[in-house]
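Recall that a protein's primary structure is simply its ordered list of amino acids. Everything else, from secondary elements to tertiary packing, is in principle encoded there. The following example makes that idea concrete.
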Amino acid sequence: MNSKRCDWCGGDPLYVKYHDEEWGRLVDDDRKMFEFLVLESAQAGLRWITILRKRENYRKAFADFDVKKVAAFGDADVERLMNDPGIVRNRLKINAAISNARCFLTVQKEFGSFCAFLRGFLPNGKPVIGRWNSCSDIPPRTELSDEISKEMKRRGFKFFGSTICYAHLQAVGFVNDHLLGCPAR
């Protein structure tokens, strides 16, 4: 059995801190859930460390991840964001973050919270606990992430395919994929 930290975070202090203090820890706050939704969507096609390094810039650019404020962003905000060198300046991803904020609000209204919506997909509403010995054993997607991604796409969410969905579930602790023996498990 492994007795060291998951090796995907390498030695970068920011990555190690994220691994040790956030990744796989259960999130039950919709603001934090929205933050990860924005960040995971921005990460599509990029390395997660790239987004982590820009996280504080995203916080400033996206109104401290206040979903109501982001949902109200208009064309001027899109142009402001497109000119912000502190974030990934991809028009499709920026527009998706704003559109996803609007979808997020609709889900909150229907389910009481976005967290409650996602928990509804979990077996008995409880996090899925992976039992992996190696990072190479961890799947990039699962039937659960396929199902959630499909439902979110049906609800209008963008940049949230099954692989990004699975990474989101891992980030917010709805799936705990810390390796067996990892001290952060």
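The radius of gyration is 16 Å. The domain at 7-176 is CATH 1.10.340.30 (Endonuclease III; domain 1).
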